[in-house]
């Protein structure tokens, strides 16, 4: 295993906060029995690992998130591209940074792009190694099915490379919460505290059902071509439709009603003269925007891969009941639900709490937004992190 750009452990390694770095973690045996060769994981870090490596915090991103949690700083003569990246705002600014709850002056904060993703880690858009494809074309349709557990096992190799034996905290929301929980169960000795936000112990039938609808919407775009589209048009229509389906589940009915009601999009009329000729409702325009925004920044195969991984989430697979699986954990807990979440219901967080080996209260983020409330209400989440697992 090598750190790309150096072979030293993180504390000896000259890094730049908020700039993408990589670890080659070699061949990964997957739960399916497949061996995935030449895996590279991308990560970003902030702060310094202390002498006994006891201050490391892992923040796990959600389905379409990336590694850029917060702004960073780069050395004076860093290349322009690194500087621009480091200076760009991240998706977790409210929680991570100097003086914030996850204080980068105190903690060494790491965020790893999930295996199978498209923000730097090996995924379907990565050139396949010569052992798979002599022409090194992207993996495309050949990229194997990976699970949340596969991803977490690969992330453990990143922790090894960085010299982190145990995390002070592993925390994430949604798919990030699934990975945080899987870390606590797979590597109990490596997780001192675990934050599971807007997530659950195992994907429910309904979550799997939503996932299937998204995946089929994407696959049915003719441009998808079974997953081999990299030298042609990208399946943006299919990915956009998948995002629309997903995004409705990420927001609450009440929020959509309050924000958009039955209003037409300004400048458009909802009374068309013939079927299919009317203008859009505001909410339709909003979903169109969410769809094109994701299609512009995400790879369709990676979306399928990560969605399938999330559908596979079950910390109890092969480990008995949820209670039996969770009995092996030894960490402190923060379990949080968003009160208006209609994708990961608060009752699923309650069920997780009930299955833990120690009494743990379920905490609540109050938000009208629905599932995305865990990203939007970062101040509330920060207070919960501060009061529980980082007190
Ligand atoms: C570039 C990257 O790499 S991003 C990677 C990181 N991303 C992630 O981690 C994913 C997680 N983040 C998210 O899912 C989202 O950013 C969230 C949930 C945090 C955003 O939540 P909110 O702030 O509530 O955004 P909201 O749902 O209001 O959407 C706002 C957008 O809708 C647009 N919009 C609102 N109403 C309409 C309308 N009627 N018609 C068209 N567009 C509309 C706004 O202009 C805004 O556009 P912008 O995002 O391009 O600025
Ligand atoms: N909006 C989030 C929700 C998934 O939990 C994302 O796109 O990752």
From TrEMBL:
Active-site residues, record numbering mapped to chain: 174 (nucleophile), 341, 371
Pfam families: Abhydrolase_1
InterPro entries (alphabetical): AB_hydrolase_1 (IPR000073), AB_hydrolase_fold (IPR029058), HAT_MetX-like (IPR008220)
Pathway: Amino-acid biosynthesis; L-methionine biosynthesis via de novo pathway; O-acetyl-L-homoserine from L-homoserine: step 1/1
SUPFAM superfamilies per record: alpha/beta-Hydrolases
UniProt domain AB hydrolase-1: residue ranges: 102-376
Assembly behavior: Homodimer.
Protein name according to UniProt: Homoserine O-acetyltransferase
Record organism: Kocuria subflava
Source species taxonomy: Bacteria, Bacillati, Actinomycetota, Actinomycetes, Micrococcales
């Amino acid at each position: 295993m090598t750190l790309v750009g150096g072979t030293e452990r993180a504390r000896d390694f000259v890094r730049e906060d908020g700039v993408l770095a990589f670890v080659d973690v070699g061949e990964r045996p997957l739960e399916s029995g497949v061996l995935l060769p030449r895996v590279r994981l991308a990560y970003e870090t902030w702060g310094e690992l202390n002498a006994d490596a006891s201050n490391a915090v892992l923040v796990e991103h959600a389905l379409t998130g990336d590694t850029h949690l917060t702004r960073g700083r780069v050395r004076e003569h860093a290349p322009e591209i690194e500087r621009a990246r480091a200076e760009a705002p991240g998706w977790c600014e409210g929680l991570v940074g100097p003086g914030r709850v996850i204080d980068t002056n105190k903690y060494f904060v790491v965020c790893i792009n999930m295996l199978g993703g498209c923000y730097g880690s090996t995924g379907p858009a990565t050139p396949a190694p010569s052992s798979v494809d002599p022409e090194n074309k992207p993996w495309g349709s050949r990229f194997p099915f990976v699970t949340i557990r596969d991803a977490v096992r690969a992330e453990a190799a990143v922790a090894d490379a960085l010299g982190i034996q145990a995390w002070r905290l592993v925390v994430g929301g949604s798919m990030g919460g699934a990975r945080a929980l899987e870390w606590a169960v797979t590597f109990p000795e490596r997780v001192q505290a675990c934050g599971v936000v807007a997530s659950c112990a195992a994907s429910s039938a309904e979550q799997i059902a939503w996932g299937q609808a998204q995946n089929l919407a994407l696959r049915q775009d003719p441009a998808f071509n079974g997953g081999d589209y990299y030298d042609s048009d990208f399946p943006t229509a299919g990915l956009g439709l998948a995002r629309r389906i997903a995004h409705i589940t990420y927001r609450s009915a009440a929020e959509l009603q309050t924000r958009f009601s039955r209003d037409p999009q300004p400048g458009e009329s909802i009374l068309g003269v013939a079927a299919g000729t009317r203008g859009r409702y505001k909410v339709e325009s909003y979903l169109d925007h969410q769809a094109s925004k994701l299609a512009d920044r995400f790879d369709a195969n990676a979306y399928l891969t990560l969605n399938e991984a999330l559908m596979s989430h079950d910390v109890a697979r092969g480990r008995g009941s949820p209670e039996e699986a969770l009995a092996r954990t030894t960490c402190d807990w923060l379990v949080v639900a968003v009160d208006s979440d209609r994708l990961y219901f608060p009752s699923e967080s309650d069920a997780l709490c009930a299955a833990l080996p120690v009494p743990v209260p379920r905490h609540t983020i109050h938000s009208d937004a629905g599932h995305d409330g865990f990203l939007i209400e970062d101040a509330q989440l920060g207070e919960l992190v501060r009061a529980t697992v980082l007190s």
